[in-house]
Design brief:
six-stranded mixed sheet; single chain; mainly beta; 6% helix; four-stranded antiparallel sheet; 115 residues; Immunoglobulin-like; 44% strand
Length: 115
């Protein structure tokens, strides 16, 4: 059994009240040269979850998680205002788990720190 990533996500499509499956996600970290460095990628499963985003330990700093939403909505044959959603957050303790859920619809989204 594989260990869960220290950063996970879950996407709920609130326009249909169901998880958003098959959404590509990219995790990046801001490095010491103020450049974004890709550290993980993945695709949400049928339950809209991505739990194996990274396997390496966390380090303190600023991260961003990009959800590629355009292809998800194209698969549903509907248009969307947001071709992608990017969430930036800061890791202030490496001893914690960070869950970054996304509540999504074609014309809006929200996020929060989950558990």
């Amino acid at each position: 059994m594989s260990k869960r990533s220290p950063i996970t996500t879950h996407i709920l499509d609130v326009s249909i009240g169901k998880p958003a499956a098959n959404v590509a996600c990219t995790l990046e970290k801001l490095n010491s040269q103020s450049e974004w460095e890709k550290i993980g990628t993945g695709m949400t499963n049928q339950d809209g979850r991505l739990e194996n985003l990274i396997s390496s330990p966390l380090s303190l700093g600023v991260y961003r998680l990009e959800f590629k939403t355009k292809s998800y909505f194209e698969q549903r044959k509907i248009s969307s205002f947001y071709p992608s959603v990017t969430v930036q957050f800061e890791i202030t303790s490496t001893d914690e788990h960070y869950h970054v859920p996304l509540l999504l619809s074609p014309y809006g989204y929200s996020t929060y720190r989950g558990s």
